[in-house]
């Protein structure tokens, strides 16, 4: 309550204390879990979700597998690019971490000395989630859900204001969506070339699923010729 009184009428700080106040009432072991999940666990889960989606696309082996894999490659690239864009934003805004400005917060992780706006974790998580959504709606919705949970965890941990998280969501979404057409135009031909290669084709399609309509021709050279010959003999007879 003291923290709320100090926050005045600022809804950003009020919401910070409301969410972070949950950590004070929670068991110590739960806070330790939330700290680990918010710092590492959810980002790892998003990376595994991207890998799972790639494995699913690869095994299915659809005609648009190359473009789907290109979208999946773009997801981590978008996250990395969004973090680079965030570097000058942080330097320009220079917003201190909330625990440096407000007393009474329950801080679940230590060693945070950089600026607060915008949240790198929220930026990376949402860029991955939206990038996944571009590739696959079902996996993308799950990824966006994990990104929202990541944002909640950052406020719960006492290391970010809610607006830091919202800013991260906006930055990650903007980079992943606005640059997606250019990224797909560059990555899709590259993935198509890899798909046609003898060594890297397995990255796009599982073995035996490349060109299923004409797969018999590739696996059994000359089969069509024999079939055509048989038809000619039947006609001659």
Keywords:
transmembrane helix, Phosphatase PAP2 family protein, membrane, mainly alpha, cell membrane, PAP2/HPO, disordered N terminus, elongated, 237 residues
Explain this structure to me?
With 237 residues, the protein is mainly α. The protein is elongated. The longest helix has 33 residues, at 28-60. The chain contains 11 helices and no strands. Helix content is 74%, strand content 0%.
Derived from helix and strand composition plus strand pairing, the structural class reads mainly alpha
The fraction of residues in strands falls at under 5%
Main β-sheet: number of strands, strand sense, barrel status?
A: none
Mean pLDDT: 83
Question: What is the number of strand segments?
Answer: 0
Question: Which value, in Å, is the CA radius of gyration?
Answer: 25 Å
* Low-pLDDT sequence parts: 1-8, 210-237
- Give the helix proportion (percent range): over 70%
Task: Determine the N-to-C terminus distance.
Answer: 98 Å
Question: What is the 3D form?
Answer: elongated
Could you state the order of secondary-structure elements as H and E?
HHHHHHHHHHH
* Helical run tally: 11
């Amino acid at each position: 309550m003291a923290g709320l009184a100090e926050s005045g009428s600022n809804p950003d700080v009020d919401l910070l204390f409301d969410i972070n106040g949950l950590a004070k009432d929670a068991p110590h072991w739960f806070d330790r879990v939330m700290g680990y999940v918010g710092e590492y666990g959810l980002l790892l889960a998003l990376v595994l979700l991207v890998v799972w989606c790639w494995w699913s696309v690869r095994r299915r082996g659809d005609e648009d597998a190359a473009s789907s894999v290109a979208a999946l490659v773009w997801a981590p690239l978008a996250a990395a690019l969004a973090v680079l864009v965030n570097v000058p934003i942080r330097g320009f805004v220079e917003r201190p971490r909330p625990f440096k400005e407000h007393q009474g917060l329950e801080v679940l992780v230590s060693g945070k000395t950089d600026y607060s706006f915008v949240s790198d974790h929220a930026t990376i998580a949402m860029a991955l989630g939206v990038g996944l959504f571009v590739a696959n709606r079902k996996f993308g919705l799950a990824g966006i859900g994990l990104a929202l949970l990541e944002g909640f965890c950052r406020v719960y941990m006492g290391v970010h204001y809610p607006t830091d998280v919202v800013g991260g969501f906006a930055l990650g979404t903007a980079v992943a969506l606005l640059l997606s057409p250019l990224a797909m135009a560059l990555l899709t031909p590259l993935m198509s070339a890899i798909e046609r290669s003898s060594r890297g084709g397995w990255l796009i399609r599982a073995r035996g699923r490349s060109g299923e309509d004409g797969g018999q021709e590739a696996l059994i050279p000359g089969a069509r010729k024999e079939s055509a010959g048989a038809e000619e003999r039947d006609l001659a007879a």
